[in-house]
Write a structure and sequence with these properties.
Largest sheet: 7 strands, mixed
Distance between the termini: 44 Å
Oligomer: single chain
Mean pLDDT: 91
Order of helices and strands: HHHHEHEHEEHEHHEHHHE
Strand order of the largest sheet: 3-2-1-4-5-7-6
Low-confidence stretches: none
Number of strands: 7
Helix content: 40-55%
Strand content: 15-25%
Length: 255
């Protein structure tokens, strides 16, 4: 199989054909982190919202009943088509879709009251550039909410996590730690508000099936799980079938 020329091509090839699975995914359609994002939206009653790396559209669907206009933004045209179809099915006429990269947003300065992103940033090639763009398109006083998987503070746990993620999905770039996220947000000009850590259980079979992970890489993940120290096993709460618990966090920051 020919290698993708760019990270963007790899991301779109990995996710485009799985668009319907991500719209239907129970992991993405619910969770404490999504509830926190929805609470932040409801508390601010934004007029214009941008959902960066919208994936299956669950953040856009949460914002649509509150906001006047929601832009679901993603690299994958197939993912955007699935979001548009689901939005129409739900009667959410205020969701528009737009295709592009997070590092170069096709929007004017101060276009949005809120910029949101959930479980997308670990695929971004240049998170600092994307955060600078988010800052640019937010109105003064606007709110950024980022929810994503988080690297553990312990280096040995971090190493295993990145290995699992890359084997499952070669478009993975990095799960950043809470400290890394806080530093990147500050460097982009944001004033950090709340940081809420959490834990997301992942059922192994659906986790790899959703990404169509090749059997050889599935075997490698299971081999790493078998070889890990007890400290790492306990951190991720690894079960006999490979299921485990992922660290995540929700960051709320102001422009």
């Amino acid at each position: 199989m020919a290698r993708s020329a760019t990270l963007e091509n790899l991301v779109t090839s990995q996710f485009g054909s799985q668009a319907a699975a991500y719209v239907a995914s129970s992991v993405h359609a619910k969770g404490e982190d999504l509830a926190l994002v929805a609470e932040a939206i409801a508390a601010r009653h934004p007029s214009h919202v941008l959902d960066l790396g919208c994936g299956g559209g669950h953040v856009s669907f949460a914002a649509a009943p509150v906001a006047a206009q929601v832009v679901a933004y993603d690299l994958s045209s197939e993912m955007l088509a699935a979001v548009a179809e689901e939005a129409a099915r739900r009667g959410l006429a205020n969701i528009a879709t737009r295709q592009g990269s997070v590092e170069q947003l096709p929007f004017a300065e101060a276009s949005f009251d809120m910029v949101l992103s959930r479980y997308s940033a670990h695929h971004w090639g240049d998170v600092p550039a994307a955060l600078q763009e988010a800052f640019r398109v937010l109105r003064p006083g606007g709110t950024l909410v980022i929810a994503d998987a988080i690297a553990p503070a312990r280096a040995v746990c971090d190493t295993f996590l990145q290995a699992f993620e890359m084997l499952r999905d070669p478009s993975h770039v990095r799960d950043y730690s809470i400290r890394e996220w806080q530093a990147m947000l500050a460097a982009a000009g944001f004033t950090l508000g709340t940081t809420t850590p959490g834990r997301q259980p992942l059922e192994f079979t659906s986790w790899i099936t959703r990404m169509r992970t090749p059997p050889v890489f599935v075997e490698a993940i299971r081999a790493l799980q078998a070889a890990m120290s007890e400290e790492v096993r306990q951190h991720f709460a690894v079960e006999a079938d490979g299921s485990f618990v992922l660290d995540n966090a929700v960051f709320v920051a102001q422009r």
